[in-house]
Structure prediction request, 274 residues.
Amino acid sequence: MNCKSCGNTHQENFCPNCGEKKFHPGQLSLKHFVEETFEGFIHFDSKFFYTLKTLITKPGQLSLDYAEGRRIRSMRPVQFFLIINLLFFFLIMGHNLYSLSLDNYISYRPFTNYNTRQIIKEKLAESKTTTNEYKHLFNEKITTESKEFIFLFIPFYGFIFYLLFFWKQKYFTTHLSFAAHFISFVLLWNLVSFWLITVPFYLITKVSYSEDFDSLVSLLTAIIIATYVAIAIRRFYKPHTFVAVLVALGIGATYFSFIQYYRMALFFKIVYWS
Ligand SMILES: [Zn+2]
Prediction:
């Protein structure tokens, strides 16, 4: 049997040289044509749900599979992250912690500590726009840019994991894949906590903003992140449990500070570079 694509002689159903499927005229039937069209979608589905399930039920397993060459059943780490990212921004509908409106930046601490009010005042004077016009422009920009730049969390955390565990995994890409899975999990948790905790709370209490409630959700998020990372690190890098717990506590405790820096970086980028 000669492969129709590369000419290689073989007996298997798929060419061992190029992967082409063994051809027979039955594949030209209308039934096969329709089946083949939907096959792609179905495989995409099963791969996505398998990856999602493994991400949630076995922290660290996807990264381990990726690093050890078991790659056929799950999606590629960044590919999976991009889909989660898309779902996140679609399902959270603008109300998310990665993208704040200009009012937040000029009304609340810690943002006002960065002199945001003065900066906006100067920006308005210089660009000769009204406050409302600028608010509208700013809010539109931050909604788009927060989506585009959130992928930067992957190299950032990849580098942190590399610095902490380069003696366990020598290839930088394995740390990147671990970071991509970690950030995917965090976005999923943000999505779940928004719809199952935050929305019901504000619907039931009918208050517009509660700092205590916000701190409580942040604390819960830090605990969830730390627990997840501890298990994932233990499974993937296999350090001493004490090391895994220590690193996980550090990551859980600092996540919100990094979001804070991310928010400020977006603010400065929008005000000065666009
Ligand atoms: Zn071939």
Residues 76-273 form one domain. The first helix runs from residue 30 to 57. The mean pLDDT is 89.
